[in-house]
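Is 1,4-anhydro-D-erythro-pent-1-enitol placement plausible here? Inputs below.
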Amino acid sequence: WQAKHPGKKYPKNDDGTIALPNEHLLSLDVDILYHLGLDNKNCDLKAMFHDAKFVCMGGTKYRMREFAQYMAGVLNIPTDGGLKNLTKRSQRYAMYKVGPVLAVSHGIGIPSMTTLLQEVIKLLAYAKVANPIVFRLGTSGGLGIPAGSVVVSSWGLNGNLEKTHNIPILGKTRKFPSILDTRLSQEVHSLADPSDEFQTFLGGTMGADDFYRGQGRLDGPFCDYTEQDKLAYLTKLSEMGVRNIEMEAPALAAMLTEAGVRGGVVCVTFLDRLQGDQVTPSKATLTDWQNRPMILIGRYIEKYLKK
Ligand code: R2B
Ligand code: URA
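Reply from A.M.:
I modeled the complex. Tokens:
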């Protein structure tokens, strides 16, 4: 795409809408966004989503429904008829819309998240949304910070300790830089308030392709390394500036960069991985902690819309 559009860094039209770089799409009579249960012929995507400025993604359907409800309160938008799951026909993910906010679940891990994200990117392009902003609100394990803290990611790191998202394409592994928008992450971080019940950190995020060995845990069904090996690995990550470990950040960073869309990752930490591997807090505590990224993102969206 860049070869054909010299001088343009990202695939964007002058009005800020997304110019999808894949020319094969032009020959499709209808583009079926299969996992969303929507398409660009039988659905008026522009009428449905044109005002969707913020896409907020998170692992579970339940949490994203809670977030949509929370944003309805923050933005004073009535939800009298109840929140509708807009992907009902697919069942795979859930998507709710509250004014300018789309709340979408993405499941666990990079393949699940990127499947959803690519269809969301096409949705935003077909709906002609100008300059959308995408956030992931997630959970993670922290490195040397108190459980319950929030981390705003400044970059993503993959399991091979590279700042790239690596994916085999036509039998060859390709690497895409996992950069995040520095200004956006700093702005979100600056919205942490000294009176918050939690601390908020800015730092790197490692996205692993596995919850157990991929995150250096000792409590999976398989493990042939020692506790010293684990701690050496986690210490190395920490020295590189990694503050938390989850399972999506490098891919999200890479895909948004490729699409020319600004975005960020804000995760609460459920434990300090230097202290252990098991997630021990009660369900009530974990549910409460999961509201923390919502609070920060809610502040960002409210402030942005007031500008
Ligand atoms: C954090 O939590 C999930 C695994 O429990 C995964 O989606 C992630 O990134
Ligand atoms: N999610 C992860 O991916 N890792 C953790 O340690 C906790 C939540």
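Short version: The pocket of 1,4-anhydro-D-erythro-pent-1-enitol (ligand 1) is lined by residues 59, 108-109, 138-140, 211, 246-248 (CB under 6 Å).
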